[in-house]
Amino acid sequence: MRIGRTLPPAAAPIGIADVLSGITGMLHGRRELERFRTELQQHFGVRHCFLVSSGKAAFALILLALRELFPGRDEVLIPAFTCYSVPSSIVRAGLKVRLCDLSPDRLDFDFVELPAMLSDRLLAVVPTHLFGSPSDLPGLRQLIQDPAITIVEDAAQAMGETWEGKELGTLGDVGFFSLGRGKAFSAVEGGVILTSRDDIAQALSRRVAGLPGYGLRKLIGLISKAAAMTFFTHPLLFWIPRCMPFLRLGETFFEPDFPMLRMSSFQAGLTANWWERLQSMRDARRTNVRRWMELLEETGNRGICSHLLPRSLGLLRFPIRVRDSEKRKTLLHESANKGAGVMSVYPDSINRLS
Questions:
Q1: Phi first, then psi: what are they for 169, rounded to 5°?
Q2: Per-residue confidence of the chain (354 residues) as pLDDT tens digits?
Q3: Cβ-contact 174, 153 below 8 angstroms
Q4: Alpha-carbon gap, residue 98 to 350, rounded angstroms
């Protein structure tokens, strides 16, 4: 247990002014939600935008809409190494998970293996911009010839990043962001769905309209979490929640019974000046990425997949692949002792989940 300066593994800060803006947003109600929705729609250049309670809810709602549009298809293809929230959403939508291995050198599908996995049972393929590292959407589009297979772009961790000048989250048939606590931009929790396909939007509109809103108890919980994040994500204070095992900070769970709600006006209020704040955080992350790459180059370390990534990325987390299990344990132990914020992101690959 470390007492003292400790770096959060990933955090998008929320300030006191942001919390006050969130409370003001509650007073504005639907007008605040419409403001945020319109800003997102205009910035990302899409025809439709939906605001919900989490990235998991956003993905599950997309899949439920696609299931309605393409009955008889019940499989969703995802990378074998990704956030546990992804298979959680697939199970929540009543669909089957199919896995494709990752490329040995990138956090992306193995495009050699991928063609054999396309079938007439496949409802969707989900390229994932893991940690903000872009998946090859143009290559995937060339590969998929079946119009009934939808490309659902998992940009949960990549808000603000681009691919050849185009915003991630807008390259698939439909995409989504997460506004969770450890994402590129945070509203404590929240999910955003973007699409320019009218058929998908119509099916989504019916489902989102039928969602319940945040009750008073959940709303008070949101405000409390936002206030806690204002103070305890600071490196000088993060050791306090880190020393509380019951909070289970940094752990990832497979939980397919999560709630699906409409976004609250408090969350929308937290997003005032969201683009400027997102870019400021992205610039800081880009600086950190360059420093990590320079350090690894100096040490001659090539046991990583990140050495192929562009230095311009503002990665949510900087990925390091350690092949030696003992070295991995040592690295995590030293990080915990020194408060360096290094963590094992996902304990295992998706195929090992029970």
A1: 105, -10
A2: 678 788 787 788 899 999 999 999 999 999 999 999 999 999 999 999 999 999 999 999 999 999 999 999 999 999 998 999 999 999 999 999 999 998 877 889 999 999 999 999 999 999 999 999 999 999 999 999 899 999 999 999 999 998 888 999 999 999 999 999 889 999 999 999 999 999 999 999 999 999 999 999 999 999 999 999 998 888 877 768 777 776 666 667 788 999 999 999 999 999 999 999 999 999 999 998 888 888 877 777 655 555 556 667 888 888 887 778 888 888 888 888 888 777 777 767 787 775
A3: yes
A4: 10
Give the bridge partners for 194, in sequence order: 49, 175
DSSP string, 302-313: ---SGGGS-TT-
- Domains of the chain from N-terminus onward: 16-214 (3.40.640.10), 275-344 (no CATH)
What is the distance between the alpha carbons of residues 206 and 61, in angstroms, rounded to a whole number?
10
Indicate yes or no: pTM above 0.90.
Answer: yes
Closest CA to 14 of 240, 234, 248, 192: 234
Task: State the burial class of residue 295 (Cβ atoms within 10 Å of its Cβ: 0-12, 13-18, 19+).
Answer: exposed
Distance CA 159, CA 340 (A): 25
Q: How far apart are CA 352 and CA 27, in angstroms?
A: 46
**Amino acid residing at 2:** R
Extract the runs of DSSP E, i.e. beta strands, from the chain. Answer: 48-52, 75-79, 96-100, 122-125, 150-154, 162-163, 166-167, 174-178, 191-195
Q: Are 168 and 162 in contact (CB under 8 A)?
A: yes
Q: Which residues, 6 or more positions from 69, have their beta carbon under 8 angstroms from its beta carbon?
A: 199, 200, 203
CA distance 345 to 331: 13
What does 238-279 look like in DSSP terms, one character per residue?
Answer: THHHHT-GGG-TT-----TT----BPPHHHHHHTTTHHHHHH
Q: Please give the helix or strand (H or E) that residue 109 lies within, else none.
A: none
Q: How far is CA 103 from CA 111, 113, 136, 314, in A?
A: 7, 9, 11, 21
DSSP assignment of 155-198: -TT-TT-EETTEETTSSSSEEEEE--TTSSS-SSS-EEEEE--H
